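hey
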């Protein structure tokens, strides 16, 4: 894929999001206008994605020697991606759990201060999810 095609596709993706949003933001906020803007956004975005897929997968096949190095680079890239996802998603889930547990613990402590220790256990368990994700990402990075 040439540089001109890549630049065109990037511009088309930006415009597929910006044009419907601009059309929606310019006028009165009604339910019909929202549906029209959303439909136009979906049509333009997925149309651009289909066009990009056709352009990306049309061309000559690479030589076998060149692909052997690409497979090793691809495997390492997937390893880094999996390490990042394990840390990021576990921290996201842990943050959601801590927000629910901590707010409930603060409400319970404000009524009865003797249950502070019990409530901190639940908040600590929710934070443990983040640490498990971090440990898994270290294990993945150790295999690379």
């Amino acid at each position: 894929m040439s540089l001109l095609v890549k630049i065109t596709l990037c511009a088309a993706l930006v415009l597929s999001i910006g044009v419907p949003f601009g059309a929606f933001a310019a006028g009165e906020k009604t339910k019909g206008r929202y549906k029209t803007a959303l439909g136009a956004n979906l049509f333009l975005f997925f149309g651009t994605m289909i066009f990009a897929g056709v352009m990306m997968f049309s061309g000559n096949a690479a030589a076998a020697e060149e692909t052997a190095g690409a497979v090793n680079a691809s495997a390492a890239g997937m390893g880094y991606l999996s390490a990042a996802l394990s840390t990021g998603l576990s921290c996201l889930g842990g943050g959601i759990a801590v927000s629910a547990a901590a707010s409930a613990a603060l409400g319970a402590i404000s009524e009865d201060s003797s249950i502070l220790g019990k409530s901190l256990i639940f908040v600590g368990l929710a934070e443990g999810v983040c640490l498990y994700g971090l440990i898994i990402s270290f294990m993945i990075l150790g295999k690379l």
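The chain has a mean pLDDT of 80. The helical segments are 3-26, 31-57, 64-111, 116-143.
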